[in-house]
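tool_call: predict_structure(chain=1)
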Amino acid sequence: MNVFGIGLPEMGLILVIALLVFGPKKLPEIGRSLGKAVRGFQDASREFENEFKREAQQLEESVTMSAELEENKMANPTPTDNDKTKMNT
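tool_result:
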């Protein structure tokens, strides 16, 4: 088991030191707080990722729409005022 580059013996040592520093009554409270903080970070990260994907999709749709309009404009040019007067004469 390797979490954040820390193996099982290192995690055990950290747990023992934390137990000595904070005591057995405070340790579960600290663990809960740490868990909530990590959960909040994950939620914020997920929200950022979703927002980034939405913006990228909107940008892609905008570029596609512009390209299609440009192709239609090139395929079906509208007559200019000079062309209209030439056609009437």
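agent: The CA atoms of residues 83 and 89 lie 10 Å apart. Proceeding to next step.
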